[in-house]
Design goal:
Layout: H1 4-31, E1 42-47, E2 56-59, E3 64-69, E4 72-77, E5 88-90, E6 93-95, E7 102-103, E8 109-111, E9 120-125, E10 130-134
Antiparallel strand pairs: 1-10, 2-3, 3-4, 4-9, 5-6, 6-7, 7-8, 9-10
């Protein structure tokens, strides 16, 4: 039969070893952490024919507003320049629901707290006639 003192010593050592192993496991997980891959920067939004002249299309996956006029395509980021919330396109204007910033249809600030206009995104056309939007790094 094991004495009470021996049992407590064995139990204490076992708890310390178990704690050390669990701590070592946590450190190993921390050191081997793999961050998520960066979000895509190029978005193929389909063929040019999908966007008739005079259309304004909200692209929620980017998020951006794609405008096609007589001069071609323009893409305006729908990320508020104040704190990065996604703005909504309503009645030919952009509205940030987070803090109340407002932008006109061109993305220029009409009401703060945002100070800078919405970002223009680069629009390219692939050889097969698809429209590619190049989002800027956040």
């Amino acid at each position: 039969m094991i004495s009470r003192q021996d049992f407590l010593q064995i139990s204490t050592r076992a708890i310390f070893w178990l704690s050390g192993l669990l701590g070592l496991g946590g450190v190993m997980r921390f050191l081997s952490f793999q961050p998520a891959p960066p979000p895509p920067r190029r978005f193929d939004v389909g063929p040019e024919i999908q966007y008739p002249l005079g259309t304004k299309t909200v692209l929620p996956d980017i998020p951006a507003l794609l405008i096609r006029d007589k001069n071609g395509f323009v893409a305006i980021s729908m990320v508020c320049t104040h704190l990065g919330c996604t703005v909504e396109y309503k009645s030919k204007a952009f509205v940030c629901q987070c803090h109340g910033s407002r932008y006109d249809g061109e993305g220029n600030v009409t009401k703060g707290p945002a100070l800078a206009a919405l970002t223009r995104l680069k629009v390219e056309q692939s050889p097969d006639g698809h429209i590619i939007i190049v989002a800027t790094q956040a």
